[in-house]
Amino acid sequence: MTSSDSQTQKIRKIPSGATDADHGVGVYVHIPFCERVCPYCDFAVVAARQIDPGVEERYVDALLRELETRRHVFADRQLATVYFGGGTPSLFSPDSLGRIVAAARAAFASGAEPGEVTLEMNPSTTERARLAAFRSVGINRLSMGIQSFDDTTLKKLGRAHKAHESHAMIEAARSAGFENLSLDLILACPGQTFASFERDLDAALAHSPEHLSVYELTIESGTPFALANERGQLDRPDEDLASEMLEHTVLSGAAAGVERYEVSNFAKPGFESVHNRRYWARSPVLGLGMGAWSAEVRGGDMPYGGRLMNPRDLLSYLAAIEEEESDFRVIDCLNEEQARGEAVFLGLRTRKGLNARAFETEFGSPPRTFYAEQIERLMAQGLMTETNDGGLCLTDRGVLLSDTVFTDFV
Ligand code: SF4
Q1: Long-range contacts of the stretch 323-326 (C-beta < 8 A, 24+)
Q2: Which distant-in-sequence residues (6+ apart) come within 8 Å of 204 by Cβ?
Q3: Are 353 and 396 in contact (CB under 8 A)?
Q4: 42 C-alpha to ligand 1 centroid (Å)
Q5: What's the CA dihedral at 74, 75, 77, 79 to 10 degrees?
Q6: For labelling alongside 357, which of 79, 106, 120, 201 has CA 20 to 30 A away?
Q7: What pLDDT is attached to residue 22?
Q8: What's the sign of the alpha-carbon dihedral 168, 173, 174, 176?
Q9: Which residues lie with the beta carbon below 6 Å from any ligand 1 atom?
Q10: Are residues 260 and 365 in the same domain?
Q11: Cα 75 to ligand 1 centre (Å)
Q12: Cross-strand bridge partners of residue 306
């Protein structure tokens, strides 16, 4: 999984509501297999140095069956996006991914062609050799888990690849005709200095990516990194240095034409992630696969939206699908207060901020009606601005302290 998927990871932890603004549906497909499990990762993954073709086929069959049984919930919607996340979905063959793309296209409103079909990849020789074939089955955007161009940093992160493989992968992707590349970097890695992060960023921008995701390393409980951190063995940059790295990313990215449009995401104009914007806009997403979750269409018994979570265990997921169980998903139904907080939190993540009119249409009153104390305090602290019509936006400093700001709303 890439950092943009760690973006999606963060997103996956968000209870989701939904708006019907675009009458579309995004399809998220979780492929959980990884060559090995990175020591900071708490995603839904299964270690598999080589994927048995029988396992791959069985998993794809389960995905297609799940699509078939869940499509009616999103009936009559246009297919907006397909996103293969993981895990490392590029470990699956182009044929397997092509089956899923074709089925998603067939499942929703006739003739719909998703404008954006993203595949997360890790730099490796095997995956590099498949680039042209991936493109031929309809994948038109690659999200690459580069994380760093420094071999020492990569080693400390426990990554399986080396920097030269990342460069080779990016160049091969361009040669294969991909015109929409997203590169993922992690900042505040163990042992990382400002200078080494600066070199990472320069190396990424030298490839002129259309999209860049830059995430601060988070220490997730239960991971080997959490244990090392508790023992004081992680030697991580402090928060001030991490902020400097992020500020530097904003300035260097802008100079290279890659502007920040969300807390951790940067893009050339017109190349913002369509799929991830669905999450921030609280739009419907159908999640397929082990550990995937769906953002349900708002209405009926979920007036404020909700999410359906699949099991994070491979055998449980496969058994539930193959035995045609109907009640194996965890349902998280939002109430009005949760939905309001989520609307503010997700709106504030974006550079455009929270749209007051849309908020009022959904909740009957502008944000200030519900959050006057928080708004006053955050404005006094220089973390937030309020537009004349009541819309809210984070300041640059607010973005740097966004995790703290968000706790005021969710
Ligand atoms: S490549 Fe590493 S970080 Fe990404 S999903 Fe696999 S184990 Fe997790």
Answers
A1: 324/69
A2: 146, 149, 183, 185, 212
A3: no
A4: 8
A5: 70
A6: 79
A7: 66
A8: positive
A9: 1, 34, 37-38, 41, 43, 45, 86-88, 122, 145
A10: no
A11: 33
A12: 333
Q: How far is the CA of 146 from the centre of ligand 1 (A)?
A: 11
Amino acid, single-letter form, for residue 207: H
Choosing from 279, 308, 334, the residue where a domain stops is 279
Q: Considering only CA atoms, which residue is closest to atom 1 of ligand 1?
A: 1
**pLDDT at residue 20, as a whole number:** 53
The domain total for the chain is: 2
The torsion angle over the Cα atoms of residues 265, 266, 268 and 271, rounded to 10 degrees, is 0
- CATH code for position 362: 1.10.10
Confidence of residue 298 (pLDDT cuts 50, 70, 90): confident
Residues 255-268 pLDDT 10s: 999 999 999 999 99
Say whether both 12 and 107 belong to one domain.
Answer: yes
Domain that holds residue 372: 352-406
Instruction: Answer yes or no: are the C-beta atoms of 330 and 308 closer than 8 Å.
Output: yes
**pLDDT tens-digit profile of 349-360?**
999 999 999 999
Query: Is residue 361 in some structural domain?
Result: yes
Cβ-based neighbours of 19, under 8 Å, separated by 6 or more: 281, 282, 283, 298, 358, 362
Residues 229, 133 within the same domain? yes
Find out whether the peptide bond into 87 is cis, omega within 30 degrees of 0.
yes
Flag whether 23 is in a domain: yes
Last-in-domain residue among 225, 257, 279: 279
Q: Is residue 271 part of a domain?
A: yes
Predicted TM-score of the model (pTM): 0.93
What residues form DSSP beta bridges with 386? 392
> Is residue 290 domain-resident?
no
Q: Which atom of ligand 1 is nearest to the CA of 41?
A: 8
CB of 379 within 8 A of CB of 386? Answer: yes
| Domain CATH number, residue 34 | 3.30.750.200
Atom of ligand 1 nearest to the CA of 1: 4
Q: Token pair for residue 92?
A: 């699956």
Measured over all CA atoms, what is the biggest interatomic distance in the chain, rounded to whole angstroms? 60
